[in-house]
Design goal:
Layout (H helix, E strand, L loop, with lengths): L1 H14 L12 H4 L13 H4 L10 E9 L7 E11 L2 E11 L3 E13 L4 E14 L3 E15 L4 E8 L4 E2 L5 E2 L2 E11 L2 E10 L5 E12 L2 E8 L4 E11 L2 E10 L3 E11 L1
């Protein structure tokens, strides 16, 4: 059964329905927004755009989990922590996705800082590992860079590049370069609208993402997102238990592959 799931995952990856898990880190942070959110700051930025780490006031840690298409063998967990210093914010992240038959791991060192009141920049150095009964163990290293510009109180734009040059490790393992541009519009302090364009070098198709979050009450934020190219919807929430503890829950729904539940718990200042 596990061998079947392994090859099923490879088939979907090659056909463009799924992506390497390195393209979809972050658990509930982004599943609820249709995987949009390039301009989001704090510990969430560890997974999507490291320039946003500059928004941390002191330190933070996060644990995120997702069960892709509700299959145990396609589950992933991410652990991250970041601390602000005088020269910027440093962070570390570990991620694992898959099972004993096939799994992918990421070890990352991230950095973000403000270049001015309106401009932030950051990046991440990553070591990627692929482990499988059919392929053995394969390793490579890559990097990503990103920037966020706050145009005014309502508009922010961001860009991010992951692995600028695609890396081929084997017939079934390729680290595809990925370019993203995002725009966030905040008509009020309680509402954020997200729009992004996402392009992987290994595919001709461009991917478009739309997201929305709304602060219902002081401690509760609701999220929704739509990704027409990947054909899935996302829904979620963020609830602040105490001043330094956030719980996020989300589910994305693919019309063919089904549900992907996700959970994220972050703590810090």
């Amino acid at each position: 059964m596990r061998i079947y799931i392994f090859f099923l995952f490879l088939i979907f990856s090659l056909s463009g329905v799924a992506q390497s898990h390195f393209s979809g880190l972050g658990g509930a942070h982004f599943n609820g927004l249709g995987r949009a959110g390039l301009t989001i700051g704090g510990i969430s930025a560890m997974y999507n755009n490291q320039a946003g780490l500059s928004e941390l006031e002191d330190w933070s840690a996060d644990v995120s989990y997702e069960r892709r298409y509700n299959l145990e063998d396609l589950s992933g967990i991410q652990l991250s922590a970041a601390k602000k210093f005088g020269f910027g914010t440093l962070g570390v992240v570990f991620s694992q996705f898959g099972s004993e038959v096939y799994n992918e791991q990421l070890y990352g060192l991230a950095y973000g800082r403000k270049l001015s009141k309106k401009v932030s920049a950051g990046g991440k150095l990553s070591v990627l590992a692929f482990n499988g009964q059919q392929i053995g163990s394969l390793y490579t290293a890559t990097f990503s860079v990103g920037a966020i510009v706050k145009i005014d109180r309502q508009f922010s734009v961001a860009s991010h590049i992951f692995s600028p040059v695609s890396i081929t490790l084997s017939e079934y393992n390729e680290i595809a370069g990925r370019f993203r541009i995002g725009l966030t519009y905040s008509p009020s302090d309680k509402v954020n609208l997200y729009a992004e364009v996402d392009k992987m070098l290994s595919r001709k198709q461009w991917e478009y993402k739309l997201g929305l979050d709304y602060q219902v009450i002081e401690k509760l934020v609701l999220m929704a997102g739509y990704n027409p190219n990947a054909d899935f919807f996302g829904f979620g929430f963020r609830y602040r238990l105490v001043n330094t503890l956030d719980v996020r829950g989300a589910t994305s729904f693919h019309q063919v592959l089904g549900l992907t539940p996700a959970l994220s718990i972050s703590y810090g200042e």
